[in-house]
Amino acid sequence: MTIPSFTLNDGNKIPALGLGTWQSTPDEVYHAVLTALEAGYRHIDTAAAYGNERSIGRAIKDSKIPREEIYVTTKLWCTFHKDPRAGLDESLEKLELDYVDLFLVHWPVMLNPNGNDLKFPTLPDGNRDIVHDWNFVNTWEKMQGLVGNGTTSIGVSNMDVVNLEKLLSAKTTKIVPSVNQVELHPNLPQHKLVEYCKSKGIVLEAYSPLGSTDSPLLKNEDLVAIGEKYGVSSATILISWSIWRGVVVLPKSVTPSRIESNFKTVDLKDEDGEAINKLYEKIGVKRYINPNWSPLVVFHSDD
Ligand code: A2P
């Protein structure tokens, strides 16, 4: 099937499938992005915290594909919450771009920019060094000033319903996030969050859609069996299921054959999509990416 685009609440369009790049090293990601663009991908997802923006920028440039044909997302790291402008400018410089298409608040937590580590500052007790006189509502107030100034759209990541309610009800919130990028796969379908975001006009994006590194989902017998019906792998079924449910999907790979096959999605029949919706009842609910933000609660539920 050709990859569709979804329309965001600000009128912009986003390709429903993009290349995920978390845990791709700078060297790997350069080749991965070139392979992906060659295979037809027009959407690349990165983040300041991934440490690979320079290579991605170089690959985009070397691909010779016009900038406006490629959808690029990056994310504000936690130590930059008081100054999203500076975070965005740093990313643009590394990406060698004038603008990104989408700029997301990576986590709804501010970390100390003057702590013992540039990325993950910690306290003597080992917990992350969180700035407590600031919150994501304050960050969002500043993010809103970036629209049209280095980013086309803005959104959030790792936001659950409790935190989204807090954000949307704040009087400083004038722009509803276009996107919420979260972990989504059959072990963590988050049907309530999907419904909630749909009701608010927020498009969801799935990270770790295959279940992340060494995923047991790829060997799941039900997913393999559905794949056999379509003549494709369980990975293709996982990717196609996201698109079927209206969720942008960001599979990560640095392996050329996988990058290519992940782009060849199938049009899932409703009965198969619905069976995958319910798979969690059989295999259980499991969140793979769950950092310790103590004493803050980032995920109030897995629903
Ligand atoms: P690699 O990058 O070495 O190709 P997720 O997108 O859920 O985070 O999953 C990423 C993981 O899944 C990576 O370890 C990636 O390995 C692997 N992967 C990506 N595509 C496929 C595929 N089509 N088949 C099997 N494993 C895959």
Automatic annotation (TrEMBL):
Under Enzyme Commission nomenclature, its number is 1.1.1.358
**Family annotation (SUPFAM superfamilies):** NAD(P)-linked oxidoreductase (SSF51430)
Binding-site residues, substrate: H106
Query: So what does this thing catalyse?
Result: (R)-pantolactone + NADP(+) = 2-dehydropantolactone + NADPH + H(+); isatin + NADPH + H(+) = 3-hydroxyindolin-2-one + NADP(+)
Kindly give the InterPro entries that the UniProt entry links to this protein: AKR, Aldo/ket_reductase_CS, NAD(P)_OxRdtase_dom_sf, NADP_OxRdtase_dom
Spell out the molecular function terms from Gene Ontology.
2-dehydropantolactone reductase (A-specific) activity
Task: Give the NADP-dependent oxidoreductase domain ranges.
Answer: 17-280
Residues forming the catalytic site: Y50 (proton donor)
Any one GO biological process:
ketone metabolic process
User: What are the UniProt keywords, alphabetically?
Assistant: NADP, Oxidoreductase
Site positions (Lowers pKa of active site Tyr) are: K75
Name the record gives this protein: 2-dehydropantolactone reductase
